[in-house]
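Cross-check.
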Amino acid sequence: MDDSLTICARRKTNKFREYSMVIRYRPLGAAMALAFSGVLPALAETQVLDTVVVKANRETPLPAAAGSLDAGAVAARRAFVSDTAQLLDDVPGMSFYGSGGVSSLPVIRGLNDDRIGIRIDGMDLTSACGNHMNPPLSYIAPANVARATVVAGITPVSLGGDSIAGSIIIDSKTPAFAKAGEAPLYGGSISAYYRSNGHASGGSVAAQAATENLAISYTGSIATSDNYKSGSGTEVKSSEYEAQNHAISLAAQGDGNLVVANLGYQHIPYQGFPNARMDMVNNDAFFANLRYEGQFDWGKLEARAYYQHTEHEMNFLATKRYMGPGMQSADMPMNTDGKNLGFVVKGDIMLSERDTLRVGTEFHGFRLDDWWPATSMTGMAAMMMGPGTFQNINDGKRDRAGLFAEWEARWDSQWSTLLGARYEHVKMDTGTVQPYSSTSMMQMADQRAARAFNAEDRERNDNNVDLTALLRFTPDANSTYEGGYARKTRSPNLYERYTWAPGAMAMSMNGWFGDGNGYVGDIDLKPEVAHTISATASWHDAAKREWNFAVTPYLTYVDNYIDVLRCPTSLGGACTAANQTVANNFVYLQFANQDARLYGVDLSGRLPLGSSAFGTFTGRGVVGYVRGTNRDTGDNLYHMMPLNAKLALDHRLEQWSNSLEFQLVAAKNDVQAVRNELETAGYALLNLRTAYEWKHVRLDAGIENLLDKNYDLPLGGAYLGERPFAWGSNVAGMGRSAYVGMTLKF
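Predicted model, tokenized:
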């Protein structure tokens, strides 16, 4: 008989969390141990205990370069951020296309928007707008964000497909359950803020109640702002906004099972876009999201089903509506209706102490109608935009069905691997279309294009394969080295494939790039296939709390990258011979498959600088560089963020914290010629922040752009905030803005 005392435990790592303890308690072994310890007389009777096994499933492993924000980090930013995408500003590799005040388009290492897999509480959402004014991250308010994670480049296949840049995973606040045997849990918070530039203001209310097995919570928020001013004091028109968000979460747990139902509603009555020809004049969205998690002897099962519906309207706000003295105000309604429907079922199977297998299936369906009623203007405008309804996308369909398998192995205390494969079938189709008029001589190019489009077989099917291989080496408690390869695939979106009209007006209304140019699709576009290799070297303290430094170089080749060419003259309409060569005006472009290369490096670090009676001081920083080129044409890729850095000096004294931030951005000189992209000058900004926390109150204050620097946003695009639209100006960044915010918890 084996009389022994055995204790086995696995420590927690940043790759996965697993707690496994086996205790075998035998009489002889216990007696010998106690005899040697000199305490045997204290235990005259020895009890035999059963074997106890405590396990928790491993979480999906994330690359070492992944960045994340917990609830505390998110709370510290809410006083000066109303745009959920901007919460990620300090994450290595992240930048943002300037857009509406609550609708920035995220960029990971030079790859933007639809090239990023974005999950909001597991929901895969698609922008329902030809200008992408309602991107996925705009559907959740910062007040409802509990955790955010960014995985760049080499993304585990279990986190999703149909993306080549990486993943952004946003988790909302979920109800907390009362502890077993304790009284019901009640709580909530009230927050408010004010910012001087644009007279921005807003607030949120949260409340929750829970027993040991049932919980409910509510979060509501509002954010408003007038047009902001640049460092020169100039008003940046069409930058105003208002957004309202409401979310309810219901949860139940018991016997290792968890069910969570989330319901939400968003109302944006208006949002200006200073780099677009149109503005948002209404956006209503509703979603329902049901999730199940179950813990079993073999591992974990997760299932999710969701539905989201958006009704979106574009037109002109005041500064774009005005056409000049004695002229009629412009009016050009554009309506969009989008529906997302999906489900995910996946299991984490603990094959052994070393091996975990993740398998799953997923479906995402998207439906889109995009139609433009006739203008109320008269004269020539009515002849161009009437008398009927223009159908831009009619009954558009985009369905993805996928399967994936992922094997994680921890070979010993130093080496671990992750291998994954994913297959997806993407089916796209759309109905017949029509221009504003079938007889107007001014719409002949659109009439001809509509006939050709309607006569074509419009169904397209793509078979996409993703592969991921990741190797991690942890030689000691203070260093981690990781490298890997990923093959990622993204099919074109509905606008890239199915926008069909070559007329100047129609082309100018399609395009989410903020450049003022016009776009037409190509029904025969192929999926983008990205091959990425990257490596990360990270050094840190054993607990990974005090200091760290990480460097991540990367290289990505994209086959069939969806870029643009000047639209061919064979399309007619705005696709003229002059359009082929113009270099100092807006142009008309067609999406086209080409090959691209991107490379760069991300640096990040944190270092304690000392402590005294005046508190502790810490330095931190993030540096990013990316370079993108079109391998077919030799041109630069569009909107590559120039070399940039954010350096900060943090101070903390008990509950009081302060930060002095320096934001440095180099000049953007590597611009894209085919789009007539404008250069921007380098700049440096200084931000000052302070916060104090009591038990139930948090107070934030600060000044952004303390020196009131005047600068242009490198990814802000062309300034189209007011009529007449003129080529040659960038969107200016925000000037000095003082802010104050307060949160009361109860």
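The longest strand covers residues 588-612. The longest helix spans residues 444-455. Passed to J.P. for a second look.
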